[in-house]
Write a structure and sequence with these properties.
With about 220 residues, the chain is mainly beta. Strands 1, 2, 3, 4, 5, 6, 7, 8, 9, 10 and 11 form an 11-stranded antiparallel beta sheet that branches. The chain is globular, with a radius of gyration of 19 Å.
Length: about 220
């Protein structure tokens, strides 16, 4: 009996460690900061919304879901290939679920739940915004910082990005990172707000990956 118990505990530990390892690093999150202001000589770029998007992934004990969210509009100011300022609007009503076929009713059920008041309450808060506050280098990586406003909360987050320039085009791609949804008051199924969920909880971590394609204005 003791041997079986030890084997079970070891298996649980391995599963837990594997789950943690599979998740991307959480973005540094702190209080909102003053927005960055570009120099007058900076070049403006306008986001191409049909080529820009945010990929998301959510976790729960029984598995994961993933999909995309659209960038509704955005402008960024660049000097010598580096971002100096920028503001982006994220269309929360554009949430798509990709891991369930569109013709499966569970796709519409999940999408409907995500845009409902349980999660992102799109009727009340149709957009999220990201406002650039700065750019820095940490351990050889370029870190983009900005104020992310979602629902009724604003926090400053920092995450690694790479930027490439090609003629009049700019592409910004982030590494995959996570945010803690509870910090933006997304409460449904969260252990941060409810202590009687058992194994029916949904992880607070949401993985995100940002792709922004912009053209010189």
């Amino acid at each position: 009996m003791k041997t079986s118990l030890l084997k079970t505990m070891a298996l649980v530990a391995v599963i837990s460690l594997s789950s943690c390892k599979d998740k991307a690093k959480e973005a540094e999150t702190k209080a909102a900061e003053e927005a960055a202001v570009a120099e007058a000589t900076a070049i403006s770029y306008t986001a191409l919304t049909d080529q820009s998007m945010i990929e998301w992934k959510g976790f729960k004990p029984t598995g994961t879901h993933n999909g995309t969210i659209s960038v509704a509009q955005g402008e960024v100011s660049v000097s010598d290939g580096a971002i100096e300022s920028g503001t982006f609007v994220i269309d929360m009503g554009s949430i798509e679920v990709l891991d369930i076929p569109k013709d499966n009713e569970k796709n519409a059920d999940l999408r409907g739940h995500l845009i409902s008041a349980d999660f992102f309450d799109v009727e009340t808060y149709p957009n999220a915004t990201f406002e650039v506050t700065g750019l820095s280098t940490v351990d050889g990586k370029t870190m983009l910082s900005g104020n992310l406003t979602m629902k009724d909360a604003t926090n400053n987050i920092s995450f690694p990005v790479t930027t490439s320039m090609d003629g009049d085009m700019m592409t910004l791609t982030s590494e995959t990172f996570t945010i803690d949804r509870s910090k933006w008051n997304v409460r449904y199924g969260s252990k941060s707000f409810f202590d009687d969920l058992g194994d029916k909880f949904i992880n607070d971590d949401i993985e995100l990956k940002v792709t922004l394609v912009a053209k010189k204005a």
